[in-house]
Write a structure and sequence with these properties.
This protein is of the alpha/beta class. It folds into two domains: 195 residues, Response regulator (Rossmann fold); 134 residues, 3-Layer(aba) Sandwich (Rossmann fold). The chain contains 13 helices and 14 strands. Strands 8-7-9-10-11-13-14 form a seven-stranded mixed sheet. Helix 3 packs parallel to helix 4, helix 6 packs across helix 7 and helix 12 packs across helix 13. It starts with a helix and ends with a strand.
Length: 399
């Protein structure tokens, strides 16, 4: 009797253990699947919590680190000022895109996938480069994430319909930047012989095309060439530039390359030829090439208290290239707050809140209200700033 009872008990214990293992296996599967379900669905509910995470993509290291660092500083500045005045707190989940590096495209994609898979990320600031956005669009869209870039300017990114409702930017497109540069060359400098060199990437070729179109329509003689972002010796290219060329336009993304090109131009005895970059080269390293260097950059409000506060924390350096990233972070944070009013939110709700953003000019570092048109472009920004180097830094050209 005891033997039969013991056998029965042992069997029940074994059965219970087996059921526990099965239940445990299913419980583990459910827990592991939860973050994937949250991150992979635009409609999945995410608990906002007391600390909210914003995805952030920037070239923290690599060839474009000098401008990426500015974006990091400005995003961090928004987070620090927000956290001082709010009970809920913000933090950044930063992914390094290594823009311009041989592995840059792969790194950007890896970062996008990391943010897409994060169970806490509701929206993204960045990426910086137009070519990066082309590469990460599918990953971010498939995850239901909206992103707001503070520097990508290629016009077609918002007009080709591929990213409508997902991509937004706090800078004007090249459809504005290109004519700004071209009309200054035509109407103010009155130059008739221009050489344009793109860096064979999405941002650069689009902007070069637009400037070339406007110049040629005005009767300017334009020669065109291209060079890889990986190239460092520009001697053979410089040899092709005739000495009667009045200006070389290089809408590149990597300031060290722009600086090297400008210095090699001088070494070749062609330092008298004016040089003009675009927003991707708006950096003091490029400005040090000399006082014959021009550039265009994003619109800013020079009287903004936001800029004053930032400069105080950064030794007087405004790091102006990064300022629109403050605005991008501001937009994502404001949209997240709106979506999180009841403590939970979805990525779809954040996208909708970004589309309906209304931040007044008085609270905007770029000097205009932050509102988006149906494409995701600012409906308020109509111009780019023009700058000239004083030999050390770029200073605004009046007018």
């Amino acid at each position: 009797m005891k033997s039969r009872r013991a056998t029965a008990v042992a069997a029940l214990l074994a059965l219970g253990a087996a059921l526990a293992v099965v239940a445990g296996a299913y419980a583990t599967t459910d827990r592991a699947a939860a973050p994937t379900a949250q991150s992979g669905s635009a409609s999945a509910l995410i608990k906002c919590g007391k600390t909210r995470t914003i995805g952030f993509m920037a070239p923290v290291t690599g060839p474009a680190a000098s401008i990426g660092t500015q974006q990091v500083h400005w995003a961090q500045y928004y987070v620090s000022t927000y956290n001082k005045t709010h009970k809920t707190k913000l933090k950044l989940q930063t992914e390094d895109t290594q823009l311009g590096a041989p592995t840059g495209t792969a790194e950007a994609l890896k970062g996008a996938q990391a943010l897409a898979g994060s169970p806490n990320v509701l929206g993204v600031v960045g990426p910086a480069g137009s070519n990066e956005i082309v590469g990460v669009t599918k990953s971010l869209k498939d995850a239901g994430l909206a992103w707001v870039s503070g520097s990508s300017t290629r016009t077609e990114l918002t007009t080709d319909g591929t990213r409508t409702g997902y991509m937004f930017r706090t800078v004007p497109p090249d459809a504005i930047q290109g004519p700004t540069a071209a009309n200054y060359i035509i109407k103010t400098l009155k130059y008739k012989r221009v050489y344009i060199i793109d860096d064979q990437e999405t941002y650069s070729t689009g902007l070069a095309d637009k400037v070339q179109q406007v110049l040629r329509a005005a009767g300017v003689t334009v020669e065109r060439d291209g060079v890889s972002q990986q190239q460092s010796d520009f001697s053979s290219l410089i040899a092709k530039i005739s000495r009667d060329t009045q200006l070389v336009y290089i809408p590149w993304q990597l300031p060290p390359k722009g600086q090297a090109f400008g210095n090699q131009m001088k070494a070749a005895g062609k330092g008298n030829i004016k040089l003009m970059g675009a927003d991707g080269l708006f950096d003091s390293s490029f400005a040090t090439v000399g006082s014959h260097v021009y550039d265009t950059n994003f619109p800013l409000n020079p009287k903004s208290k936001i800029i004053t506060g930032f400069r105080k924390q950064h030794g007087g350096d405004g790091e102006y290239f990064g300022a629109p990233t403050f605005a991008a972070t501001q937009v994502v944070a404001t949209a997240t707050d709106k979506a999180c009013k009841n403590g939970i939110a979805t990525r779809a709700e954040v996208r909708a809140a970004i589309r309906s953003t209304r931040i007044p000019a008085a609270l905007s570092v770029i000097g205009v209200a932050l509102r988006f048109n149906r494409n995701g472009d600012l409906s308020t920004a109509k111009k780019f700033g023009l700058y000239k180097s004083n030999g050390n830094v770029f200073v605004p050209i009046p007018g």
